[in-house]
Amino acid sequence: MQDKEEEHSLVSVENKLNKDGFTEDFRVTEGRLHTIGTDRSKSYAPNEVTIVDFYRFEGESDPDDMSILYAIETNDGVKGTISSAYGVYADADVDEFLKTVEDLGKNLRKNHK
To answer: Edge-to-edge strand order for the sheet containing 79-85?
Structure first.
C-alpha cells in the first residue's frame, strides 16, 4: 500500500476508494452516521461502524488548511466515505462520532486493497 504522504489528491484517493467499493457518501447528525444521496437513507450508531482507513490532505498554499477523508464500512456491508476539516476547522459532530467509534475498539482495519 502507498504511504499516505504519497497520496496526491483527494480526488485520486476518492477514485481509488470508489473502485474498492466505497461508493456511499456519509454525514453525521444527531450522533449517528447517515447515508446521503440514496433513495433509502440509512443511519448507524458508532457501534455499527468500522473505520477501514483514513487519508490526510494539506492545502497547497496553507498547511493549516487540512482535511481528512475516512473510508468507512457499516455492520450491514455499506461502504463509503466521510470527510472533515482537520484541526481547528474540524467538524465537531464528525470528530466526536469517529472518536466514539475508535473508543469502542473499532480501530483501523487496514485490509482493503
So the answer is: 43-44, 32-36, 24-29, 79-85, 66-74, 49-58
Q: What is residue 6's DSSP assignment? A: G
Quote the pLDDT of residue 13: 92
- pLDDT exceeds cutoff 60 at 56: yes
Close Cβ partners of 81 (under 8 Å, ≥ 6 residues apart): 14, 17, 22, 24, 25, 26, 69, 70, 71, 72
The amino acid occupying position 75 is N
Cell of 63: 498547511
Its pTM stands at 0.78
CATH topology of domain 4-103: PH-domain like (2.30.29)
Q: Which phi and psi angles does 22 have, rounded to 5°?
A: -85, 80
